[in-house]
Specification:
This protein is an alpha/beta fold. It is 39% helix and 17% strand. It has five helices and five strands, in the order βαβαβαβαβα. Strands 2-1-3-4-5 form a five-stranded parallel sheet, sandwiched between helices. α1 links the parallel β1 and β2 (32-37). α2 runs parallel beside α3. It is globular, with a radius of gyration of 14 Å. It starts with 5 loop residues before the first strand and ends in a 6-residue tail after the last helix.
Length: 147
């Protein structure tokens, strides 16, 4: 991995959504390394360096986590709760990227200290704009705390 690359962890179980998000992240002008997992248990194993994800050089800590809510094994809200409860991880920015615009889901995510909540647009062109704005803000404009 390049030293100047931003590491984005994508936690998304829908293969079609993951493919679109990964493609759109790679199309931007900044260097991004994407680590994709498809369920909440794998996300927690990665973040807490357990099992197959124990090597921190192979599985570096992300600069940004894109988190779906509806995940197999462990749901996104529980993943978010554990991230924000961890002294080591709580400062990592977590952006929920969900199909749900339900007020209850949004409120629940903010109660768990999510940094942002974005609804995936159905329209592809709107999805492109959303991802461009996400990358622009979170990976170029936003300043991350140093580890």
């Amino acid at each position: 991995m390049q030293d100047d690359a931003m590491v984005v962890m994508l936690v998304e179980d829908n293969p079609a959504h993951a493919e679109i998000i990964i493609r759109l992240l790679k199309e931007n002008r900044i260097t991004v390394q994407i680590r994709h997992v498809s369920d909440g248990e794998a996300a927690l194993d990665y973040l807490f360096r357990r099992g197959a994800y124990a090597d921190r050089f192979t599985y570096p800590e992300p600069h940004l986590i894109l988190l779906d809510l509806r995940l197999p094994k462990v749901d996104g809200l529980e993943v978010l709760r554990q991230i924000k409860a961890s002294e080591r991880l709580r400062l990592l920015p977590v952006v929920v990227l969900s199909s749900s615009a339900a007020h209850g889901d949004i409120a629940a995510a903010y109660r768990q200290h999510v940094n942002s909540y974005l609804v995936k647009p159905v329209d592809y062109n709107q999805f492109v704009v959303l991802m461009e704005n996400l990358v622009s803000y979170w990976l170029t404009l936003n300043r991350h705390p140093q580890p």
